Amino acid sequence: MSMNKNDKDVHDQENNEIKKEHTFWQTQPVEVGDDNCVIEKKCEIVEKSIVLPKYFKFSTLDVKNELHAVYEFLKENYVEDGHSKFRLLYSKEHLLWQLLSPGFKNEYAVTIKYKNIIKGLIFATEKNIKINGKEQKMAIVNFLCLDKQLRNKRLSPVMISEIRRRINYNNIISAIFTAGQDLPFKLTQVKYYHYLIDIHFLNKIGFCDETFLSLKYNLSIGLNTRELKEEDFDQVKILYDRDMKNKKIYEIMDQEMFRYNFLKKKNVVYSYVKEEGGKVISFGSFYILSTTAIETNQEIPCAYLYMINGDKKYEMVKSLIELSKIEGCKMFNTTDIFFNEEELLELGFCKGDGKLNYYLFNYKASPINPNEVYYTIP
What distance in Å separates the CA atoms of residue 308 and residue 77, rounded to the nearest whole number? Predict the structure, then answer.
């Protein structure tokens, strides 16, 4: 394969940015090891933000009045696949679900603006996370995004430093985040798998080739499967806690968090239970997150497995796929934290080429297997 000068310039620029990014992380409290503890137990409280270049400024997001601006910014600039053919598309309803969750503080929604136009975004919320048996209050960092035209300006480390400053100010000193980029302090790496619901549509927009057209979609909603209700929470919590006994990283959820995370929000999150003899034996949930086919600007509604607990998980995930189809989803996605590869292939999933890495900030833990993680950042 040959590379013309323009391709080489872009390739060299990307490599230089990756090297600079690694240089930044070398100055941060990030490492893997067996200690299972906070690295820097005291954090320096910094009163003021880093001074940005002329016309740039940090700004706290006004969620109510700037939601549309954030939606448009992410629509044009957020995560793309490795071939720049598809880009994640967060609906306004989904953004509100994340931005206003319990543990959210308004100062944790940070933008960089250039002449009052959003050019960068980073967001965090507080969660109680259990890591190798230890409970730790952590910031969950998400939506790090910069305008494509500014990605060679070294602003990502500046935004990370700013969100760290704000988190530290509230006495939160550790964080967890995910990224496609492979950094030296990776905790684990998970792989994406896809259940192709509308295969002809996905082939038409270029997600899969003709070899997948022979696949047969043959699922149905299992018996005694119904929508989650508030009165189910006690039973569902028992299933969740039981499954977490063998996991190394998961969220500690009280009733308020369970209610917020899993009660149905139309076009955002859907949750179901399966009963036997009047008792809840299985619980499953998916959220909806669309993808844009960049070349044609077509939207692909997708479901992502959010949580699954209890018995008969195979039956539950099959029901969830069919239920997501009813909601208009063209594809059902998951990673290998809930099922291993053999199980997913048996269920009819296809292995994708996407990967996601989990990282801890200011917390030292040894690398773990994907099936030891039971935490998803939507």
Answer: 31
